């Protein structure tokens, strides 16, 4: 599943092409791509046609494109990529993409005509038109916007580790108040957003913390160190364009990310730990897997 770096790469790639662009036409090929939209295909197409995109924003794994207020309502196109969703920029009239679900034909004052294509092989992702609501703390809703608003579907999503408005003291307290395994807490998008399986394993390896360690037994200092490692791995992944293991995650131009070359533990079961030489192990975790070094990341005592 695309995590914060992958979604941020997509947002940053979309921004120059869509901000200031008018949506000239909307085509929905597959209604399953509108599972988060309140209304039918016709209402989605009608709500977008003729509107202008004014920003490209992200919080955690959600991204949204705020629209002009020509209807009198603050709204945005809100998207979640799910497991395999892609937002691609294509030339006008470009052939239909494999697994294409939705196409927006846009007209940009500087770049001319373009097509924004939402493709999704596994159909777990979606687009929707959603109303914007004020943020409880009065800070900008997310990365890429100055407006203190988020889509109503994103209100429950916590700020992410790279958000300037994140209160680290509140996050540290929230993490230490939980008795769940620290990896489970890192994946809880209502506590800290944007971190998924890959970057949780990498940050825990860097911080030398076993994934099953109860969050409540970690000191405030240990949690802050872990948050530092989370930020470090996210920044490194962003610099490499995200992590691609197959063709399901690509940027807006269809290019893969290269952070998989720099992974220390994730997907490296049976390979020696780069710190101590002990073989990395893989264990089942919440219908997925955890990767860690059994020597550097000691399992907590019962």
Could you walk me through the main structural features you see in this protein, from its secondary elements to its overall organization?
This protein is α+β, with helices and mostly antiparallel strands and 302 residues long. The chain folds into two domains: 151 residues, MutM-like, N-terminal (N-terminal domain of MutM-like DNA repair proteins, Alpha-Beta Barrel), CATH 3.20.190.10; 125 residues, Helicase, Ruva Protein, domain 3 (Orthogonal Bundle). The strands form three sheets. A five-stranded antiparallel β-sheet has the order 2-3-4-8-9. A four-stranded antiparallel β-sheet has the order 1-6-7-5, covered by helices on one side. A two-stranded antiparallel sheet has the order 10-11.
Feature tags:
single chain, alpha+beta, globular, four-stranded antiparallel beta sheet, Helicase, Ruva Protein, domain 3, five-stranded antiparallel beta sheet
Summary of the model, kept short:
It is built from six helices and eleven strands.
* Overall body shape: globular
Report how far apart the termini are: 32 Å
| Beta content | 15-25%
**CATH architecture of the largest domain, please?**
Alpha-Beta Barrel
Q: On the 0-100 scale, what is the average pLDDT?
A: 95
Largest sheet at a glance?
A: 5 strands, antiparallel
Low-confidence stretches: none
CATH superfamily of the largest domain: MutM-like, N-terminal
CATH topology of the largest domain: N-terminal domain of MutM-like DNA repair proteins
């Amino acid at each position: 599943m695309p995590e914060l770096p992958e979604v941020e790469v997509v947002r940053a790639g979309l921004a120059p092409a869509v901000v200031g662009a008018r949506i000239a036409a909307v085509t929905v090929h597959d209604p399953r791509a509108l599972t988060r939209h309140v209304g039918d295909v016709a209402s989605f197409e009608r709500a977008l046609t003729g509107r202008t995109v004014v920003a490209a924003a992200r919080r955690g794994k959600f991204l949204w494109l705020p629209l002009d207020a020509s209807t009198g309502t603050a709204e945005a196109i809100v998207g979640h990529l799910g497991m395999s969703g892609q937002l691609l920029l294509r030339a006008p009239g470009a052939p239909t993409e494999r697994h294409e679900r939705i196409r927006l034909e846009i007209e940009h004052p500087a770049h001319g005509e373009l097509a924004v294509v939402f493709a999704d092989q596994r159909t777990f992702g979606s687009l929707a038109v959603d109303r914007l609501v004020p943020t409880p703390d009065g800070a900008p809703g997310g990365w890429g916007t100055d407006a203190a608003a988020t889509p109503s579907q994103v209100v429950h999503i916590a700020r992410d580790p790279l958000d300037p408005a994140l209160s680290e003291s509140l996050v540290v307290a929230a993490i230490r108040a939980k008795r769940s395994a620290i990896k489970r807490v890192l994946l809880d998008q209502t506590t800290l957003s944007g971190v998924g399986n890959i970057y949780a394993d990498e940050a825990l390896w860097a911080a030398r913390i076993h994934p099953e360690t109860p969050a409540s037994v970690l000191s405030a200092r240990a949690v802050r160190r872990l948050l530092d490692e989370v930020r470090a791995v996210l920044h490194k992944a962003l610099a490499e364009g995200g992590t691609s293991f197959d063709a399901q995650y690509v940027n807006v131009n269809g290019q893969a990310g290269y952070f998989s070359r720099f992974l220390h533990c994730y997907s490296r079961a049976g390979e020696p730990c780069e710190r101590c030489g002990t073989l990395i192990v893989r264990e089942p975790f919440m219908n997925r897997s955890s990767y860690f070094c059994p020597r550097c990341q000691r399992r907590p005592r019962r």
